[in-house]
Amino acid sequence: MKPSIVLYKTIPDDLRERLDQYFTVHAFDGLHPDNSAALEQALQQAEGILGSGGKIDETFLQRAPKLRAASTISVGYDNFDVEALNAHNVLLMHTPTVLTETVADTLMSLVLASARRVVEVAERVKSGEWQGSIGPDWYGVDVHHKTLGILGMGRIGLALAQRAHFGFGMPVLYNARRTHQEAEQRFNARRCDLDTLLAESDFICITLPLTDETFHMIGREQLAKMKQSGILINAGRGPVVDEQALIDALQNGTIHAAGLDVFEQEPLPVDSPLLKLPNVVALPHIGSATHETRYGMAACAVDNLIAALTGTVKENCVNMQLLEK
Ligand code: 8YV
């Protein structure tokens, strides 16, 4: 008999067929309470789950007593309680490589859009304001040759450093737990402490995951240490920034602008003060959202679940140590 799994996100048909070859698939459009009775029943039997979002913690795991593997269609896994998964011997699989270049593109687009006010001025053109040659009230600030500070130097940070160094001639600073030889050798990146990065960068890009250590890492105090002309870009996770402190800093002119793909609450509430600020570019968490990359992520997550449930895991496993038991 094929192992039973719960699929809680719609995936392309060919990938669904691949899953069907290996598993008895119970599909749902999410893990929300509307699915309750059928979902509860499917979870009772499930050896694997595949999807994205939702909170996977001790309470959830108790609803899925046979679970052996969870495969998320994302690189981030802050919605999983990894300790609880470890205690239940559940492998956690994620998609760390396939989205790297696309997320770095999103970061660079936020740098450009916020510096050159792309969204704001395009809206002004659409509303008929372009009536003569433009003056300083339409101008932005330069990106090329400005200093880019990267918080976190993982795969995405590295891909961003490459773009900044070769594409835009930008000196790159980074703050990370370890020295990244490749970033230093190939892109001339310089590791520094957070205060130095805050003080010297023209653009600060957050590529960090959300953990206990990174929660509200950028708060009032850190924003005050940025240049007044500084621009903050976040495409990691919303709660890495204290959003209220950021709103105040943008309103008071403590910093110049922000480009945000992630927020403390998603979807961003329509009454968020961020949406009233002309110096904010707000995106709906599109970091990896291209057709090619989302397909690649789903394909990777399918392969990851097959590997986890057939005992052939080689990569993409968060708690690899379970395999060594
Ligand atoms: C995901 C992301 O696409 O991979 C991540 O961690 O934030 C995005 O790329 C998002 O979580 C939805 O699946």
In short:
With 325 residues, this protein is an alpha/beta fold. It has twelve helices and twelve strands. The model has no long low-confidence stretch (mean pLDDT 97).
Give the bound compounds: 2-keto-D-gluconic acid
The H-and-E topology, N to C, reads as EHEHEHEHEHHEHEHEHEHEHEEH
- Structure annotation, total helices: 12
Mean pLDDT: 97
Name the beta content range.
Answer: 5-15%
Largest beta sheet: strand ordering: 8-7-6-9-10-11-12
- Outline type: globular
Distance between the termini: 26 Å
Given helix and strand content, the structural type is: alpha/beta
Total E-strand runs: 12
Major sheet details: 7 strands, parallel
Please state the CA-atom Rg, rounded to the nearest Å: 22 Å
Helix content: 25-40%
Low-confidence stretches: none
Explain this structure to me?
- With 325 residues, the chain is an alpha/beta fold.
- Helices cover 37% and strands 14% of the residues.
- The protein contains twelve helices and twelve strands.
- The strands form two sheets. The protein has a seven-stranded parallel beta sheet with strand order 8-7-6-9-10-11-12, with helices on both faces. Strands 2-1-3-4-5 form a five-stranded parallel beta sheet, sandwiched between helices.
- Strand 10, helix 11 (243-252) and strand 11 (257-260) form a beta-alpha-beta unit.
- The protein is globular and about 70 Å long.
- The relative contact order is 0.14.
- The structure holds 2-keto-D-gluconic acid.
- Residues 52, 73-76, 99, 287-288 line the site of 2-keto-D-gluconic acid.
- 2-keto-D-gluconic acid binds next to loops.
